[in-house]
Amino acid sequence: MYTADAHCDALLKIAQSDSPLVNIDTLKKGGVGLQNFALFAPVESSIYEQQEMIKKEITLFHMCVKQSDNLHSNPFTFIKNDNTYTDAILSLEGAGMLGDNLDMWNDLKNKGVEMASLTWNERNNLAAGSSQPNRYGLTRAGKKVIQWQNNNNIVTDTAHLNEQSFWQVIELADTVVVSHTNTRALLDHPRNITDKQVAALVNKNGFIGLTFYPLFINGTNRADFSDFGRQVEHLCSIGASDIIGLGSDFDGISSTINGLSNPSDYPALINWLLARFDENIVEGLVGENFRKFWNRRRIKR
Ligand SMILES: [Zn+2]
């Protein structure tokens, strides 16, 4: 079945000379037709070091694509329902190292970045992340960057934002996703989203990627397919079945769902889901919803 994943941190792992769980072999075995690769630099390092890290990850991304027939990168073009290869897309997770320097944003777009979040969990010069109280939100510079994103058909990712920033993005941004999260209805964690936020994303024709991180799924270090299934069930019950998908966060999480240790395990998850949900729900969830969302906004350009 066509599978798509809206978030992984494999590039950081490769940049740190570690071997990623998301790689050519596991993508192939998992039937992954579409994989988003996030550019991320640890926020503790200096702005200069973060900029250098992002450059390094971009270079590594293009090297990987060049070296493998199985990875395709064609920014701003239509993505086919074909998982005999993987369409690799690029996003930026946290943009404190760019601030509102639009030359740098343009440069990133020219290198294939099509989606970006303003901040990680912290508060930076653009927005306030999920660790921050709601008296903080988007800054003037953050609003300017959203405007640039709208003008350049860049998707605004609200994963990691606090609620205040989220609602401001909903108001200002054209195309909004939460690339890797779970639901607060099932676990009240600052990285998860409320039913009200889900409804706003449905309204906006956005997208929600569900992570495999047990800490966000049930608050422990252990989760099973059934815990993941409960997230899906809840989202379907509040009318979000057409906008949900996978946002694994592989290579960015310290534990994962039992039986789902890397992309090669997707067929097992799919079989489990097919035994419990309608086929069209499963097809949407594991890939088609994200592919369609991505094509909708690419065509809009
Ligand atoms: Zn993240």
Automatic annotation (TrEMBL):
<dbReference type="Pfam" id="PF01244">
    <property type="entry name" value="Peptidase_M19"/>
</dbReference>
<dbReference type="InterPro" id="IPR008257">
    <property type="entry name" value="Pept_M19"/>
</dbReference>
<dbReference type="InterPro" id="IPR032466">
    <property type="entry name" value="Metal_Hydrolase"/>
</dbReference>
<dbReference type="GO" id="GO:0006508">
    <property type="term" value="P:proteolysis"/>
</dbReference>
<protein>
    <submittedName>
        <fullName>Membrane dipeptidase</fullName>
    </submittedName>
</protein>
<dbReference type="GO" id="GO:0070573">
    <property type="term" value="F:metallodipeptidase activity"/>
</dbReference>
